[in-house]
Automatic annotation (TrEMBL):
It comes from Paenibacillus donghaensis. Residues 7-99 form the NIPSNAP domain. SUPFAM superfamilies: Dimeric alpha+beta barrel. The lineage of its organism: Bacteria, Bacillati, Bacillota, Bacilli, Bacillales. This is NIPSNAP family protein. It comes from the Bacteria. InterPro entries: Dimeric_a/b-barrel, NIPSNAP.
């Protein structure tokens, strides 16, 4: 499994628009074979930083998702919304191997 972790710098005056965009992508990733873990929107602390993470079974499965985006009208509509409303200043994308089980949990599985 691979988890994509995103850090966004957003316009703090457009958090509502970013929230709408985030909800679109949660549904899209889940519809396209991934598991979206949600977004973390600004609350306390910096008003212009947000995070998101989602997982795919493998990096190859993630690449299939990325390659399907240009052919998806729903994905294109979400991307168009972001361009129209200009709420994302920049973002960083990193990939991680998630670990969901502790020693005790893994021992109970076998």
């Amino acid at each position: 499994m691979v988890t994509c972790f995103l850090k966004y710098v957003i316009d703090p005056l457009k958090i509502a628009q970013f929230e709408h965009y985030s909800k679109l992508w949660i549904d899209l990733v889940n519809e396209m074979g991934g598991l979206h873990h949600g977004y973390l929107l600004p609350h306390e602390g910096p008003s212009n930083i947000a995070y998101a993470s989602f997982s795919y079974p493998s990096l190859a499965a993630y690449e299939e998702y990325r390659n399907a985006i240009p052919q998806s009208p729903k994905c294109q509509a979400a991307l168009d919304y972001a361009v129209e409303h200009q709420f994302i200043v920049s973002y960083e994308r990193n990939f991680f191997k998630p670990l969901f089980e502790g020693v005790e949990t893994a021992a109970r599985l076998f």
